[in-house]
Amino acid sequence: MRLELDNVRHVFSDNGYEALHGVSVHIDEGECVGIVGESGSGKSTLCEVIGGLLKPSAGTALCDGKDIYSLKGDEWRRFRLSVQYIFQDPKASINPYFSLFSALYEPLRIKRPGLRRKEASQLIVPMLHRLGLDEEILSRRVGEISGGQAQRIVIARSLLMESEVMIADECVSALDLSIQAQIMNIIADIHRQTGTGILFISHDMGLVRWLCDRIYVMLHGRIVEELRSEDLPSGAKSEYTKLLLEASR
């Protein structure tokens, strides 16, 4: 699956704020791409547009060459199932009234109608073990677990859905450094072992440079530079990119 934004603008209708100014980016099948920039640079708006959550004001968002926002029926369903999110606040993306088992089972039932709980358990438990969680956690609710555990549950949900692209929006910024490192290693292992495409959004150039093959640098709703991680730091041309590199040391 290839995702692409072509000259996308987005203006929020409630306040007239233009968050994206003619942004063009792409993520090829199986690629790990980083979007880096300070808070307010438009990173989250970009990922919502490319992930099918926010229709752009102008320009096009494409999936394998087709306008995402013109997809209907089975094509739209396939897109929504194939692109999964890891949000900055994982607890907010898990229904607080569900047990964690139900939080993982319900999406699976959408993807595989008729899937029984026992069959789902045979998929869920090995996935938890892979991510360093015991199955006893499945009886809990999201308010009873830590942020690091919640982030693993959201990653498990994405993997169980067999997503082709995982969008990680500031997914480790709120975690302690030790947990942050664990989650980053999990994401890197997922990319290496499954070939899942990763769109990784962060304000931390060090994290993006470590994880990603290719990087877009954003400032005030615009892409100021595109470069490969292997070309850093000497390949940076933008002064803003150089500042981000300096801050990550």
From TrEMBL:
PROSITE patterns assigned to the protein according to its UniProt record, in alphabetical order: ABC_TRANSPORTER_1, ABC_TRANSPORTER_2
Keyword Nucleotide-binding listed: yes
GO molecular function list: ATP binding; ATP hydrolysis activity
Gene3D superfamilies: P-loop containing nucleotide triphosphate hydrolases
The organism's taxonomic lineage, starting at the top: Bacteria, Pseudomonadati, Spirochaetota, Spirochaetia, Spirochaetales
Superkingdom to which the source organism belongs: Bacteria
Domain ABC transporter: from-to ranges: 3-245
Species: Candidatus Aphodenecus pullistercoris
UniProt keyword terms in alphabetical order: ATP-binding, Nucleotide-binding, Transport
Protein name: ABC transporter ATP-binding protein
Gene Ontology terms: biological process: transmembrane transport
Pfam families associated with the record: ABC_tran
